[in-house]
Amino acid sequence: MDYPYGAEHGSTKETEAPLEVDLFKYELEDMDVFEDVEVDLQVFVRLARLGLFDEASRRFERYLARHQSIFSVLVENLDMLLQASRYQDVIINIEKEEGLRRNPTTHDETDPDGQSQLLAAMKVLAKVHLDMLEEDALLAELEDCRGYLERKWPRDTREYSDAILIHLAEVYLGIVTAGLEFRLIREQYRLRYCNPPWTTEETPEWYGFCTWYKELMEIGCHWEAQRIQRMLIPKVTFDQAEKTIIQIDLQKVIKDAKETGDYDEPFVLSMLAISNNVCDYLLKEAAKSRAQLANLASDYLAISRSLKAELCQNSTLDIINRSLPVKQVDELELKLKDTKQKTAETQTRTPSAKGIARYGVWKATPVRYNVEDPHLDWVSPHLQLFVHDKGGQEALAAVDIKSENRDSRLVYLITSDFTHHITEKLAQLDPGFHVLTGTLEQKLDGLALDFIRSNLFDPTNGRILSHDIDNTGHDMLDQLRPILDRAISQKSRVYIYGSQFSDGTGIHDIHMNQGNAGRWGRENGVFQDGALIFEFVDHWEAVFIGFASQAVQTEDGPGLAGHPLQQQDFMTWADLLAPDKGVPGLEPNDSSVVITQALVNPRGSDQQPGVPKQTISLKNRTSYEVDLTGWQIRNMMGQAQRLPSNFHIGPSASMTIEVHIPISNQGGTISLLNRQGLVQHGVSYTKVEADRATVVFE
């Protein structure tokens, strides 16, 4: 179908072609109305969708205001007023119709109850934006709207035959997003309203609406889809957006429309809005910490450019260049240029992450050590640990005891009774160096270490220490010497994680190797952290070292693996453990909710009737209730179980949760992730501990 732009009553250009606009499936041609009202309404909708609100308002007042008793006329005007943020006018118009004490004139097949519900929802949306509703009143209105949608929505969500229902669900989403923005919906109710009423409570946050967006696209409701998309984009995580909003191949959708003859102005306008929305979202994500997304944004901008050219070339409207979708393309051009420039500057300051070379673990026996004189190497002195591996060959382990950064302090944690499933793997290694870089051991259940992801220790038990504070007990060397002396005298085994020297004679980088900024950013990576783990006759001990300036949370990857989650102003170990930088070793704050025990090996045959289910127990360390809605439990394999909506743990309370993902009874890790997907608390256990059925962590 060619661009069928008609115009009457003083529009900018004349054409004999009939104007066709998809009025949310309102079948005006079947209504008993004057033909000029139908055409005027189509022209009005066209102007409103182009974002030409002033022109649309003038046309409405001149030709359509006296016809607001027709429901489609009324609702399209209200919709334009909402898009133009004229919320007070929305309320005035609805209350005017309510004052007439009669339903607007409609086609016989339309639903008066649905009309009333839609008008009520639009009024609520306007009131939320004007801060005219209290929390309880808003929740009551949401429940009313939710109940109606639950009763009326078809079981097959792709059977969209009722335009009023589609519009009502869209307004419902608008109320929810506005309610969250203005903090009228508390966290405990969040998950209930962040999905359509026709989904189950177990549906992940926003996933139901994302799925609906895809279904709308599949059945050709492109304009409705882009309106849903516009509200969802600021709310969803990048992973959700990548799997739904970004996943759809717009080029294929456009090609198919051309082949089927559906390539008209409403379609082009919808595709332009969708492409613009995704491009803008990607540029915002690129500006945060995902610089590689600028290239994908550029691809979407190319689509937008093409659609803009089609729209402007074929339009009969002289003011098409003033329309919002067209102007947004020009704005995105500037944003992309600015983003690429800033990305280039950032990459100049922060080299791309390559990880450390020849990362691995060295199994050996410690024999002696010495400390470099800080007067000879005051920038980055090391403790030199000499070890013997197979055949008595001597190797050197260079342990950092001072950072080269402005904050030269170290993060230090010694575990005097180290229990972790990784010790069982270590004990089976032959003496010598074992390369882990690029192997299957560099993952969650592998032999490689990750301070953030492997649950090696409780981060809040760490301490910030300097390396050379005389006679204070806060010297880094004061903490290392006792364990080294015992290991040497008892001829224990040591497992040294780090980067092997290029000549193979030793190992360094025996510390955290992620979360670096500036020049050390090139060494960032995940599952490549260094450590000293000692195997004594009857127990294990471990030493974990990092730098006070490193980030406590990092990107999973792949592009920026190991980089701080934020490029600037990220939380460092110093921020977490010693906010007052003048007090070395200041005690940190505990995690709010922790894992206290786990039933990992119930007695009886697996999956047999009567055998208890695997469980974990949580404890709230705070004096206030914590909302766990959307939190996750993650096992050693990376599988996660999301906690349901309205899931709370009371002040200082404990609770036990049945686990539906497999928890290994051969030793492993369990992590508690918060709503943002960050590790809130993590624990580990060995096969020996698992044999006792219940593992207690505190």
Describe the structure in your own words.
The protein is an alpha+beta fold and 698 residues long. It has 5 domains: 1-109, no CATH class; 111-248; 250-349; 359-577, no CATH class; 593-696, Immunoglobulin-like, CATH 2.60.40. It is 37% helix and 16% strand. It is built from 19 helices and 20 strands. The chain has helices at 35-49, 53-64, 71-83, 87-99, 112-129, 135-152, 163-181, 187-193, 207-218, 222-232, 238-243, 250-260, 265-288, 293-314, 324-349, 422-427, 476-489, 573-577, 687-690; strands at residues 359-371, 382-388, 394-400, 410-415, 432-435, 463-465, 493-500, 506-508, 531-535, 540-547, 593-599, 615-620, 626-627, 632-634, 640-642, 648-649, 654-658, 667-673, 679-686, 694-696. The strands form 4 sheets. The protein has a 5-stranded mixed barrel. A 4-stranded antiparallel beta sheet has the order 17-12-11-20, with no helix packed on it. It has a 4-stranded antiparallel beta sheet with strand order 15-14-18-19. A hairpin with a 4-residue loop joins strand 9 and strand 10 (540-547). The longest helix is centred in the middle third of the chain and has 26 residues, at 324-349. The chain is elongated. The model is unreliable at 1-33, 104-109, 375-379 and 581-590 (pLDDT under 50).
Query: What's the total number of strands?
Result: 20
Q: Rough shape? A: elongated
Helix content: 25-40%
- Biggest beta sheet summary: 5 strands, mixed, barrel
Class by alpha and beta content: alpha+beta
Radius of gyration (Å): 31 Å
